[in-house]
Specification:
Length: about 300
């Protein structure tokens, strides 16, 4: 599935580990099946939520091939590329394509704060090395590198650079992108707490985090907004907001894995140096999750 639209809800899924710190493909399968049953539109592997920086090359291969087999063409499987060098990023893109991925989400260079010129050259080198469609992850808050509209103008000379994961935290950037590029660049919101606003303003989709634990509610917000049923979407989104705020936190992986435990589609196991939440912070997060589970809204027919 190489020809697909960058739209809809695309979970940035967590990577499941056993108590012995091996890949837990059984629980991973349970979660992916829950996502598919809820009607998500794609699966994104190996992002921040997927603890990509702690995965080795063989584990990434296993995850891509397992997910491709599991989804069986129902939705695209997108692999995240987050490397320290252009050479390694190109290798990672080639591996993802060979393993059956349908697309790539590409971060700017890790660790080195590249200039605008270097950033564009990095993305273009990756795009030139693969035929897979690419979504650029624009998150200057966390990665200190902003992909500006002028940079996108240059990047769009590559036909396979097609989308942006918009995480600037500036909701008007959705409008700026749409005004500048119309339908040449698909926009997927990358910030859970701005997702409904972004969709209302014309974003094509949502790269979501709390969807890992609450897939039905996440898909419902998207589908209701796209159907123009804003009031119904708002009721779910308002209930969702305390949970969504768990995504904009340095411990987002631990937070969301705790939520997955509460909804029965994950475990709390994280990979060192991460550790499960402790003490007052753990109790605070658990109270938010417990209240959310207790008051889960009824999903209307869409």
């Amino acid at each position: 599935m190489t020809n697909f639209s960058w739209k809809g809800v695309m979970p940035a899924v967590t990577t499941k580990f056993t108590d012995a710190d091996m890949l837990d493909l059984d629980m991973f399968t349970t979660n992916i099946n829950a996502q598919l049953e809820a009607g998500v539109h794609g699966i994104i592997l190996g992002g921040t939520l997927g603890e990509a920086s702690t995965l080795d090359t063989e584990e990434k291969k296993i995850l891509v091939e397992h997910t491709v087999n599991l989804v069986d063409g129902k939705v695209p499987v997108v692999m995240n590329i987050a490397e320290q060098s252009t050479k390694e990023a190109i290798k990672a893109a080639e591996r993802a394509q060979d393993q059956g991925a349908s697309g790539l989400m590409v971060l700017p260079p890790m660790r080195y704060k590249s200039t605008d010129y270097e950033t564009v050259a990095y993305f273009k080198a990756i795009a030139s090395s693969t035929s897979l469609p690419i979504m650029i992850y624009n998150n200057p808050v966390d990665y200190k590198i902003e992909v500006t509209l002028d940079m996108f103008e240059e990047l769009l000379k590559h036909d396979n650079i097609q989308a942006v994961k918009e995480s600037t935290r500036d909701i008007t950037n959705v409008i700026r992108i749409r005004n500048r590029f119309e339908d040449r660049l698909s926009i997927l919101c990358g910030v859970d707490t701005l997702a409904m606003e972004s969709l209302v303003m014309g974003a094509d989709g949502w790269v979501a985090g709390l969807v890992c634990a609450f897939p039905r509610e996440t898909v419902a917000v998207y589908e209701l907004v796209k159907a123009g049923r804003i009031e119904e979407a708002s009721r779910i989104y308002n209930w969702f907001m305390p949970l969504l705020e768990l995504d904009i936190n340095p411990q987002l992986v631990q937070n969301i894995k705790l939520a997955e435990v509460a909804t029965g589609i994950g475990t709390e196991n994280v990979r060192l140096p991460r550790l499960p939440l402790q003490g007052d912070e753990r109790n605070r997060v658990l109270s938010i999750i417990e209240e959310g589970v207790k008051t889960r809204p009824i999903i209307p027919n869409i």
